[in-house]
Amino acid sequence: MIEEGYHPVPQGMLAAVVTHLVCERPIDPRPTPPGLRLVRETRMPAATYRDLYRLIGRDWLWTSRLMLGDEDLTSIIFDPDVELYVLDSDNGRLGMVELDFRDHANPQIAFFGLAPNAIGRGIGPWLMATVQRMMADQGAERIRLNTCTLDAPQALRFYLRHGFRAERREVQIFPDPRVVGVIDTDAAPAVPLL
Q1: pLDDT tens for residues 49-93?
Q2: 3-state SS class at 15
Q3: How many CA atoms lie within 13 A of 89 on its CB side?
Q4: Using CA atoms, how far apart are residues 52 and 146, in angstroms rounded to an integer?
Q5: What's the pLDDT at 87?
Q6: Are 148 and 168 in contact (CB under 8 A)?
Q7: For the whole prediction, is pTM greater than 0.85?
């Protein structure tokens, strides 16, 4: 257990507080915004996945999947118990959702994100309601997800407003992906590079 007080984070490392959330009752459905389609991807090439993942998560330092080789990445996203959805629009891809049913008792929204040009347009509430309904229709009684202090500042409030409740917290310390070269050094300008 971490003792109360300040604890140094080594040079080249990051620390984040991770909040684990659970939803036991999906929110009410919302009408689909015009021009949007949620499309299931079953054979997305690893490079295409990484491009979309970078587009959505660059400013929040999403890098866990960027650190995987092609074989390890595709073994996850092609797993029959993992469902990958892309939010398409008339103007290109606007987001992605990855649902992980590998632990059937505790299905999880592994990734839920919008491209920068889709944030603040009212798309998120519709997407979350749609995802929750899809998971409930597959028998999920409790939907899990987590967010951390490196995610968008509004992320935790968004999840709490959309049926989730906080269950527990952890501190995660890991190499800064900008230092190890997994993502460019200009990523996440709100997080100083040390």
Answers
A1: 999 999 999 999 999 999 999 999 999 999 999 999 999 998 899
A2: strand
A3: 17
A4: 20
A5: 97
A6: no
A7: yes
Q: What is the crossing angle of helices 70-77 and 46-57, to 10°? A: 80
- pLDDT over 90 at 104, yes or no: no
Give me 13's structure tokens: 């490392």
Nearest one of 170, 93, 169, 163 to 135, comparing CA atoms: 163
Q: Which residue has the tokens 């050094």?
A: 185
Burial class (CB in 10 A: 0-12, 13-18, 19+), 87: buried
Contacts of 41 (CB under 8 A, 6+ apart): 84, 85, 86
Q: How confident is the model at residue 134 (pLDDT cuts 50, 70, 90)?
A: very high
Among 123, 116, 117, which Cα is nearest to 158's?
Answer: 123
The domain made up of 13-28+40-175 has a fold known as Aminopeptidase (3.40.630)
Residues 113, 187, 50, 148, CA torsion sign? negative
* pLDDT-based confidence at residue 106 (cuts at 50, 70, 90): confident
Predicted pLDDT at 65: 93
- Other C-beta atoms closer than 10 Å to the C-beta of 184 total 11
Two tokens at 167?
Answer: 């269950």
Average pLDDT over residues 174-182: 95
CB 143 within 8 Å of CB 132: yes
Locate the domains of the chain by residue range. Answer: 13-28+40-175
| Alpha-carbon span 31 to 72, nearest angstrom | 36
